[in-house]
Design a protein that fits this description.
479 residues, Outer Surface Protein A, domain 3, 18 helices
Length: 479
């Protein structure tokens, strides 16, 4: 596997769902006392070039980060970036997972994205062994993997493509011929609506997938999917228990239609693993991002709204009405970017949601939302919004600036990336594309040494404030 990833590079990227802030938030909602992410220890298994781990280390300077990967060239590229940024709280090590042991140390968060399904059984076993042996008592492990029944559809086309390119060794040739096969087959007269739907889905997948991703994922020698109950059983064998999904919305009954919720309750009978498995059956899920903790940890799945009172809240949800009525007793509907909807007639909740929308992507501590005398009611409404995906919860204050200061400073990583292309990492641990060439030039100049006059010279007299405001809204400027 290491040779394959050295032969065809797989650029790393930030994964918001793996950030220790996200994991600490979910763990806290379920009654755990996870270590605050601003002073934690993080281990990433299969770290690649550090595209996920390096931004964390930059944003959390008091925390420690370790990444291990078999691909020598990827690790070397990551080390070059670490050196360029002058980071001292992160190390990347070229290592075989099966050789890793107790000397790695103890970690509050163990991450393994895009590894479990793509490695042989002995490496999967080592991954879960490390996730237990090197996990702190109140630690959280993140493991992603392909899931049945949904992956059966992808697996069908994978089998076709692998057969077609079985004699092709050149990576570019394998990719091109695999894609061409599906495109040619889709042009044939397909018998039945189901066949057309399946081919349309696969064509969309291929159009959205970078060549190196297709090569390492769909055309990999090993690519296994698992039923959730199978993965949960393997985790239990390593004395780990199911905590939650990294996308908390995916496991909430509020997102299920009433017939689905009734069926899940009938089939699962209160067993959380059974409920998740039957939810996969109903939804046809094909990928999971599962959080685990030690089996001896006592969890509280009652999900008390009061637990959000110590958290920061962010939301880009907007009222459907152009002029929302904020009076008590008048219902208003708010919609989020993922199609989430929340209707409330609470004045304090409507005012809070409008305020959050106005400062997005900044977050506001719950206690600063001004819910005097109605904190419990506001907590219940906002927690419901979180459960349906209308807003975000965070344990940390924003790490980025709402506006540009006199001498604006952009993320050092984003400045470095802007020298190489349009895709940069935000301080929200996401990727964005800075399409405007002048914006990219301006981003590179924001090292804190220039005032507005100097910046105007650097971008040849273009409008500065609008561009700085745009970069701030993209969470690229440091506070």
């Amino acid at each position: 596997m290491g040779f394959a990833y050295d032969q065809v590079l797989y650029p790393g990227f930030p994964l918001a769902q793996t950030h220790p802030d996200r994991l600490a938030t979910i763990a806290g909602l379920l009654g755990m006392r996870a270590l605050p992410p601003d002073r934690c220890r993080v281990l990433e298994l299969g770290c690649g070039d550090g595209g996920n781990l390096i931004p964390m280390a930059l944003g959390l300077p008091q925390s420690q980060f370790t990444g291990i990967d078999l691909a020598e060239q990827a690790v070397a590229r990551g080390r070059t970036v670490i050196q360029a940024l002058g980071l001292e709280n992160i190390s990347l090590r070229q290592m075989d997972l099966t050789k890793a042991g107790a000397d790695l140390g103890e970690f509050d968060y163990v991450l393994a994205h895009g590894v479990y399904s793509w490695v042989p059984p002995e490496v999967r076993d080592a991954l879960l062994r490390i996730s237990r042996a090197n996990l702190a008592p109140d630690g959280v492990a993140y493991v992603s993997y392909n899931a049945y029944p949904g992956f059966h559809r992808r697996e069908m086309f994978r089998g076709m493509m692998l057969h077609h390119v079985r004699s092709v060794r050149d990576p570019a040739g394998r990719y091109q011929q695999a894609v061409q096969l599906v495109e040619d087959l889709a042009k044939c007269k397909l018998d039945g609506e189901l066949a057309r739907l399946l081919f349309d889905e696969q064509l969309q997948h291929l159009s959205e997938t970078a060549p190196w991703v297709l090569y390492h994922d769909d055309l990999a020698g090993t690519n296994r999917a698992f039923y959730f109950h199978e993965f949960a059983a393997e985790a239990r064998r390593h004395h780990l228990q199911y905590l939650a999904e990294a996308d908390f919305v995916e496991m909430q009954a509020e997102t299920d239609p009433e017939p689905v919720a009734e069926a899940l309750e009938r089939f699962a009978g209160g067993d959380v693993v059974a409920r998740e498995q039957y939810r996969d059956f109903i939804r046809g899920r094909r990928f999971r991002q599962t959080l685990l903790c030690r089996e001896e940890v006592v969890l509280d799945r009652s999900l008390q709204p009061d637990r959000i009172k110590e958290l920061y809240i962010a939301s880009e949800a907007r009222p459907v009405s152009s002029q929302p009525d904020l009076r008590e007793g008048v219902a208003e509907e708010f919609r989020g970017p993922r199609g989430a909807v929340l209707e409330t007639d609470s004045a304090v909740a409507k005012i809070a949601l409008c305020r959050l929308a106005g400062v997005w992507p900044q977050s506001i501590r719950f206690s600063d939302l001004g819910a005097v005398g109605e904190a419990a009611r506001l907590a219940e409404i906002l927690f419901q919004g979180y459960r349906v995906g209308l807003l975000e919860l965070h344990t940390l204050a924003p790490q980025f600036a709402a506006t540009a200061g006199d001498h604006p400073v952009a993320s050092p990583l984003a400045r470095l990336q802007a020298q190489q292309g349009a895709v940069v990492t935000t301080l929200r641990h996401t990727l964005i594309e800075v399409d405007d060439a002048i914006d990219r030039r301006l981003l590179q100049l924001l090292d804190g040494t220039r005032n507005r006059e100097a910046l105007l010279e650097g971008v040849r007299g273009e409008e500065i404030e609008t561009r700085l405001d745009r970069l701030a809204k993209e969470a690229l400027l440091l506070g």
